[in-house]
Design a protein that fits this description.
Number of strands of chain B: 12
Distance between the termini of chain B: 22 Å
Order of helices and strands of chain B: EEEHEEHEHHHHHEHEHEEHHHEE
Helix content of chain B: 25-40%
Strand order of the largest sheet of chain B: 6-7-8-3-9-10-12-11
Oligomer: heterodimer
Strand content of chain A: 15-25%
Shape of chain A: globular
Number of helices of chain B: 12
Radius of gyration of chain B: 21 Å
Distance between the termini of chain A: 31 Å
Number of strands of chain A: 12
Shape of chain B: globular
Order of helices and strands of chain A: EEEHEEHEHHHEHEHEEHHHEE
Strand content of chain B: 15-25%
Number of helices of chain A: 10
Largest sheet of chain A: 8 strands, mixed
Amino acid sequence: MTTVLEVDRLTKHFTFRRGWFGGEGAVRAVDGVTFALDQGETLALVGESGCGKSTVARLVLRLTDPTSGTIRLRGEDVTRMAGEELRRARRNVQLVFQDPFASLNPRMTARQIVAEPLINYGAVAEPAFGRRIETLFDCVGLARHQWDRFPHEFSGGQRQRLGIARALALNPAVLVADEPVAALDVSIQAQILNLMADLKRDLGLAYLFISHDLSVVEFISTTVAVMYLGTIVEIASRDAFFGNPRHPYARALLDSVPVTHPSRRGRRALLQGEIPSASALPSGCRFRTRCPMATAICAEQPPPLEEKARGHRVACHHVERKTSAAAVQ
Amino acid sequence: MQQPVLSVERLNVSVQTADGWCPIVSDLSIEVAASETLCLVGESGCGKSLTALAIMRLLPRGARIDSGRILLGGADLAALDEPALRDRRGRDLAMIFQEPMTSLNPVMTIGEQITEGVQRHERVSSAAARTRALELFNRVRIPDPQRRLAAYPHQLSGGMRQRVMIAMALACRPKLLLADEPTTALDVTIQAQILEMMAELRAEIGTAVVFITHDLGVVAEIADRVAVLYAGKIVEQTDVVSLFDNSCHPYTRGLMRSIPRLSRQAGGAVVDRLTEIKGMVPAPTAVPTGCAFSPRCASATEQCAVEPFAEPLAPSHLVACWHPETAGLAAIPGGAR
């Protein structure tokens, strides 16, 4: 399997001054995030608002510069690229936005929106140009009579299809999707999720899929990484994660998902409190202030992200390393 | 069912468009009893928020109640004038919104905003109102309540603001609480906390709740009864367990099937494909005649060109459909036609 995206100890700190005479403070939005994404895979970044998942997306797209760490795209280090070199590298990683209402130019027709990346990159020679556009519209299920419409004439689901067609125009290796279905109605959400699953299979794409919705993540992902305050606290294959989540935060997150039937109400331990500020992180483990398992060691040492079972890495002092013979949990 | 606190009878709401008044809510009838939560479920544009605003008599300019009665505590809210409504809002009925930041006053402290409401409706001293606010803050589990009373809305997190809104809405122990997607903007862990707290408070105060949401998971968590809206009409109305076990309307069934579910909750393997509802919700100006759902419905026939009326398929299970899927109902005593 080819690795298309590799991120190593990626860090982004936003600095600010604390008043006139105060020193410099830093919001540690992303703090040492490492993962790899293979062709045909979907890595889901999961977490609550402020956990840094969208900042990771912006870093991968080089829309913001990392404080440290490296980003490799198809084996090529793009971390410090600039100018024309960066522009050329960027065609390999494209973005689908959360809000299909805000991310399409209202003065361009659907055809112009989808053609724009092709024109920008001189990607397709004139005779094949029309065919490419037709293929793209076919891919996302928009009919020919809709090509010359403006964004406001489309519904939310159709606009998201348009955003996906635009992202696919340059045949990228990686599609970054930042909450692509969060703004859509439930009946439309299923259409877009099915479409994304089909496209990945047919085009051999890799998705970096950012979402707060665990049921959506379970449907679409192959690997799940849970983020909390800028770090990955657990990363595992989808089945390993949903079958046996190990980190106390990941468990609490799963327990917070609303039930699927009224008979299942109230069978859970809710997480207390709220996420602390990323500019005033707790010492040691960042989750310890809300963690039911926290002990003295959690305040002293940040737990490393370690392999606790095969391919299942967890950052917690209280999760036992599982030997092959040991029972689950 | 016990005597309803709120009963809405054949409510019709329309909004002004370039081509005249366009109906948004048609012949909506609901009843809610004390300590009961009725969920209004539907997708964007189905009229669920306008229904709540109509009950509050807070419809924006360009929207109006065409007909219908809104009975609360012996009075028809639809017929009251503004001064009479002001006496009731906050005392008899209150509302919380999706985005608490836009419904709190940014230049008043939280404490002032709560005590203002209490003193508007009850003859109490400002010290007593302040004590009431403190109790409420404790009740909605706002940490460090004394200090928070002096805070401004921007100094609080989204979850805290929603707690403040709930405290404010319940300050005068209203008979009816309208909640419009109160947890949609919140993270799941905070949503779970707020839903649990709302359920406790409802039981404690005995308030009737109309809870608006698009999320069937939230419905499963909090509802006693559910009304499903499509294009401004109630297509199915029943108790929450029947809705999840025996929904009969093709739209409700489609919604149920289209949401991804956690395998650990639903049991079994992860699905490869989600079931889609074809097409999309019609624009309010272009609602099909007859059954509004028929163009998207797999069971639709010629008969669906005539509008179906809401019919009880089982005791207190109303369905507006010519071809309801009643397989699950046959087993229930008194079920099916």
